Amino acid sequence: MSEVSTVDGRTVRVALLGCGTVGREVARLLTEQADELAARAGAPVELAGIAVRRPDKHPELPRHLLTADAGALVESDVDVVVELIGGIEPVRGWLLSALRKGKSVVTANKALLAEYSAELSEAADAAGADLYFEAAVAGAIPLLRPLRESLAGDRITKVMGIVNGTTNYILSAMDSTGANYAETLEEASRLGYAEADPTADVDGYDAASKAAILASLAFHSRVTASDVHREGIAGVSSFDIAAAKALGRTVKLLAICERVTADDGTESVSARVHPVMIPRSHPLAAVGGAFNAVFVEADAAGELMFYGQGAGGAPTASAVLGDLVAVARNRVLGGRGPRESAHAALPVRPHLQTPTRYHISLDVADRPGVLAQVAHVFAAHEVSIAAVRQRDRTSTASLVIVTHLAPEAALEATVEEIGKMDVVHEVVSVMRVEGED
Ligand code: NDP
Ligand code: HSE
């Protein structure tokens, strides 16, 4: 390897906060690829310290670098803080302190960014520091930089994708084996795909944080996790999966972020996370296992798709290292990365106004006039029916109804009223439909 040429002989000193699944891979790559990273950054990138909760549990790491005092490491003589601990506090305080002192921050912490991105960005801007977070959404996939930089001259209208590997693994397995949700979650935990506490994944919190980050970047507005309508996958039954299969569809947990233009021309943002049926021919349907994939639609660019490993130590470390090189370059050459862009300040549209399509399965009494009664309820709520399929059983009939687009509120009210009808024995499954024009 040829000798690294550095700008004014300086070194970029890095504090690594957290050395777990992702942090340990970052530390490894920083050490193993030190020469290449220095060549790309324009100066050696040196690990100045590693903060962990229990230093005695890390015999693999150089003792002189280890500390349990992350706050003191942040305050020490470092240029960049790489945060891979996770959660809100005390991390938020440490990162704000670092940014206010002009130290750049690289983080993979979607939970923090989805709530406090504005505060962190303001602190970074005030001090002229960088805040990079490519690894926070979709792990290794270069997605946030394209949204922040490559597509900065375009008008993005929609970002829709699979941004949680755990739930995608579970839904893919349910689809291929026919097993139910509980069995599949157990298998996912046994194989190490689901975390010991899978709540953030299966209840959609992780995907909602990512949707908030994506919507903020795509639509130049501030969207937080609490603005995102969220439903998880615990209610997805093997019946839902079979019903989707029977219609040439599959079930995915999608994050859907849209720019919505009202009839009077005013714009707003819609951001939601919930299970949906998509056609098997849709590119997202083929994304199996723990992989992530995100569809972006922009006025000039058209449709783009980003695909790859959305989690895991090494894949996520790749995104962190990419950010670290960018931040180090900026420090060495005196530039800055992109600042927060929230100039559009679009409001978030209430979820109940979102136009969507429903797939509804009902067990109904099998006698004349039942279909007409059910159809009447749809009409009363101004929900147009796109397709109806009926299968007879002994004394009941199984009715599958797919609607055209209607506001979420009208669809919810329709399902509620149908559920109370004497002729309806059971509302077996209700699922939204996406990806069909
Ligand atoms: P881990 O739980 O594996 O690691 C967390 C690390 O933080 C551990 O080294 C732990 O120390 C350390 N830590 C915890 N509390 C403190 C504290 N108070 N002071 C100092 N150190 C502390 O997390 P991951 O590596 O999985 O995730 C890190 C971040 O990356 C999170 O924000 C996560 O959301 C994000 N992320 C993770 C992905 C993944 O695939 N795992 C993918 C994309 C993003 P100790 O080792 O002593 O316990
Ligand atoms: N728990 C997350 C997932 C990790 O399953 O996708 C990546 O953020």
Structure description:
Strands 7, 8, 9, 10, 11, 12, 13, 14, 15, 16 and 17 form an 11-stranded mixed β-sheet that branches. The chain has a 6-stranded parallel β-sheet with strand order 3-2-1-4-5-6, sandwiched between helices. The chain folds into 3 domains: 12-139 and 313-333, NAD(P)-binding Rossmann-like Domain (Rossmann fold, 3-Layer(aba) Sandwich), CATH 3.40.50; 144-309, 2-Layer Sandwich (Dihydrodipicolinate Reductase, domain 2); 352-433, Alpha-Beta Plaits (2-Layer Sandwich), CATH 3.30.70.260. It is an alpha/beta fold. The chain is elongated and about 85 Å long. It is built from 14 helices and 17 strands. Residues 1-5 have low confidence and may be disordered. It is 36% helix and 26% strand. Bound molecules: NADPH dihydro-nicotinamide-adenine-dinucleotide phosphate and L-homoserine. The site of NADPH dihydro-nicotinamide-adenine-dinucleotide phosphate has 23 residues, from helix 1. NADPH dihydro-nicotinamide-adenine-dinucleotide phosphate (NDP) binds at residues 18-23, 51-54, 57, 70, 84-86, 108-110, 135, 139, 311-312, 316.
Search tags:
single chain, 437 residues, alpha/beta, Rossmann fold, Dihydrodipicolinate Reductase, domain 2, Alpha-Beta Plaits, eleven-stranded mixed beta sheet, 14 helices, 17 strands, disordered N terminus, binds NADPH dihydro-nicotinamide-adenine-dinucleotide phosphate, binds L-homoserine, ACT-like_dom_sf
